[in-house]
Design goal:
The protein is an alpha/beta fold. 50% of the residues lie in helices and 10% in strands. A six-stranded mixed sheet has the order 3-5-6-7-4-8, sandwiched between helices. It has a six-stranded mixed sheet with strand order 9-11-12-13-10-14.
Length: 675
């Protein structure tokens, strides 16, 4: 069997295929001799080599080296491979075993035909069976049972690589990472160095990447794998089997895949419910026992019981890195933004993949609008040309939408619709609100451009306390600020965040702030009294942990990039030490008669039909703005149901209903002369 005269440019797959078929031909000759057939081949001619030094070794030899197969185990593997690749093997197997029914390989046949029979190769711990290279069928005895080569191993021998179909349902390959920011590139290099240094020691450590940046963690892992020549695949924690036998099969198949394709596995636990003890135990078993490179990603640190654990905290790109990302991705379009990049960087804390996606979407949308406008001009002569949406506006809106989804699961999103004219407040309080808006707008210039952030990283968050009775306009004021600043507004009910279980309140608050960091949203913490009452002396552990909860929230508010607003009905009940750490305090007084008249004047939309409404009489109702809105809305429903414009009689009916809810009597002085 002379090898073809391949050149130096010979395709490895062709050479590998030729080598494999040569090896199978040698096994076929042995079977023919065992069957008593004269092959005319001398034993000394039964040799095999691979005379292509410029090409990698054949897959068969690589497999034997990687898994430490003995010559007998190699013979068994080739015997099974021949059944799939050589049509003469079934008849030869039957003839060699002297049984026309045994048209398949068996351990008995392999032991009889091999020059180096080895009984221990039949054991479950042997490489052939441990790594599931062959499947042992049902038979009257182990040595007489049918043997079949595993399909993944068969294709590997022929030079074809793919992910085992039993793994492909739950594991998927991750593409190569793009260019990383410098801080993330350093993490990737540290991770690669960790693997390189540990490979020669006792075993690879479990690597854990913690933080909120899911996309960045994947990109860092992908870059690290490229540095050490590993392919990267990912499995979601929810796909981990809970049954022990299925979990063990996953472990064995994946570790085999690691050796076949030099692959690392990323176990994504970012969205897992840590209270699911069964799943957490399955993840712990897998991560503790698997010996191949494993990277576990999670938002919070996990502990490892047995396996060495190395943890890397992944932070979002720095302000300067994000600025450079925006500029490099937008390219020439940056010059037309008139400093808008600085505004984007100051309000949004985004990962590199997110910034790339936003720029691609924004530039594509602008190009599409420009094309649509050109088409419109060519078909609609005489009309004024449409104005394309400014790129800065598209970028801003896209940033908001990209950073929105995670907060939607933790807080109530409030659509901003109120404007300054809707807010009825004394001028002093209105000015404080304008000051808040100015601080949010100019924080990039003051902190970064004018250097205040370099003095100290503390106290850079913008916080405000809105104090006043229910219905006096606290939520509306937050709504006005959100609309003015074009930011999302999220309401968090602190009474639902506070937990009686130690540590749970901080965990809930951390989830809210971490989710909000990306988008610079306005956080409205309602019912602050639930957490921020006067802090008592520490008399027991509960007092100590209650104070720790307050301190934790203050710390997060001071570090938060966006605007955090607290509302309270009882300002005097708050601790003065707490109040000193709030930058703005806005008092919402109960409206007097003139302010109530102003509210009534604006309460009905212009489309609402009204008839003979007397604002001065309505202002005698001694209620706050929130109650006024309820009365106006209910009156509108009463009038609509009667098929009439909204009149004083409908408002009287609605006022009576509202006062019942307030458990207050509606006095004659308040409604005198209404009807």
């Amino acid at each position: 069997m002379t090898a073809p005269a391949y050149t130096e440019s010979t395709n490895w797959r062709e050479a590998n295929q030729h080598y494999l078929m040569q090896a199978i031909a040698l096994v076929r000759e042995v079977l023919e001799r065992q069957a008593g057939r004269d092959t005319g081949t001398q034993g000394e001619n039964l040799k095999l080599d691979f005379p292509y030094p410029s090409l990698p070794a054949p897959a068969l030899e690589q497999l034997c080296t990687i898994f430490g197969l003995s010559s007998f185990e190699r013979d068994v593997l080739l015997l099974c491979a021949g059944m799939e690749l050589d049509a003469s093997f079934p008849a030869l197997c039957a003839a060699a075993q002297g049984d026309s029914q045994r048209t398949y390989p068996t351990f008995s046949l392999a032991l009889a035909t091999s020059s180096t029979p080895q009984w221990k190769a039949l054991m479950p711990a042997s490489p052939l069976r441990r790594w599931r290279m062959i499947e042992v069928g049902t038979g009257s005895a182990l040595t007489l049972s049918p043997l079949r080569i595993d399909e993944r191993i068969l294709h590997h021998l022929t030079g074809l690589q793919y992910l085992d179909e039993r793994l492909a349902a739950i594991i998927e390959p991750l593409p190569k990472s793009g260019e990383l920011v410098s801080s993330h590139q350093r993490l990737a290099e540290q991770l690669a160095a960790t693997w390189s240094q540990a490979s020669g020691i006792s075993g690879l450590p479990l690597v854990q990447l913690c933080g909120e940046e899911t996309a960045s963690k994947r990109a860092i892992t992908s870059a690290a794998c490229e540095l050490v020549g590993l392919k990267l695949n990912v499995i979601n924690g929810v796909a981990i089997p809970l049954n022990f036998s299925e979990l063990n099969q996953l472990k064995q198949l994946w570790e085999r895949e690691y050796w076949l394709r030099a692959s690392a596995l990323l176990l994504d636990c970012d969205e897992l419910d840590l209270s699911d003890a069964v799943r957490e135990n399955a993840i712990a078993q897998l991560s503790e026992s698997i010996s191949s490179p494993l990277i576990l990603t999670s938002r919070e640190r996990r502990r490892s019981r047995l396996r060495p654990l190395i943890t890397f905290d992944v932070q979002p790109p720095s302000t300067n890195e994000q600025r450079m990302l925006w500029q490099s991705t937008l390219g020439a379009a940056t010059s037309s933004l008139n400093g808008q990049v600085e505004t984007l960087v100051s309000h949004f804390n985004l990962s590199a993949p997110t910034i790339h996606a936003i720029c691609t979407e924004a530039l594509g949308r602008q190009a599409h609008e420009a094309l649509s406008i050109d088409s419109s001009l060519s078909t609609q002569h005489g009309l004024p040309p449409a104005t394309p949406t400014e790129l800065s506006t598209i970028l801003w809106d896209t940033c908001r939408s990209q950073s929105r989804p995670r907060l939607n699961d933790l807080a109530q999103h409030i659509e901003s619709s109120a404007v300054w004219d809707d807010l009825v407040l004394p001028e002093r309080e209105r000015q404080v609100l304008r000051d808040i808006a100015a601080h949010v707008r100019q924080r990039a210039k003051v902190y970064e451009g004018w250097g205040f952030a370099g003095k100290s990283g503390r106290g850079l968050g913008i916080s405000a306390l809105f104090a006043g009775a229910s219905g006096t306009g606290k939520t509306m004021a937050a709504d006005v600020l959100a609309r003015e600043l074009r930011l999302d507004l999220y309401r968090i009910d602190l009474s639902s965040v506070v937990s009686k279980y130690i540590g749970e309140t901080e965990k809930n608050l951390r989830r809210v702030f971490d989710a909000a960091e990306a988008g610079g949203a306005i956080l409205l913490f309602d019912e602050a009294d639930a957490l921020f009452g006067k802090r008592s002396d520490v008399k027991d552990s509960h007092d100590r942990y209650a104070n720790m909860e307050v301190s934790y929230l203050l710390q997060r508010m001071e570090a938060y990039r966006g605007l955090a607003i607290l509302t309270t009905n009882l300002k005097d009940a708050l601790d003065t030490a707490f109040l000193r750490r709030i930058r703005f305090i806005v008092r919402f007084p109960f409206p007097d008669a003139s302010q109530r008249a102003e509210i009534w004047q604006r309460i009905f939309p212009s489309q609402t039909p009204t008839e003979d409404l007397d604002v001065k009489k309505l202002a005698k109702l001694n209620v706050a703005g929130g109650n006024i809105r309820n009365i106006a809305l209910n009156a509108a429903f009463f009038a609509a149901d009667a098929g009439e414009p909204v009149g004083m009689k409908h408002l009287l009916q609605a006022a009576q209903s509202e006062y019942v809810k307030l458990e207050r009597p509606l006095t004659d002085a308040e409604v005198k002369g209404w009807v």
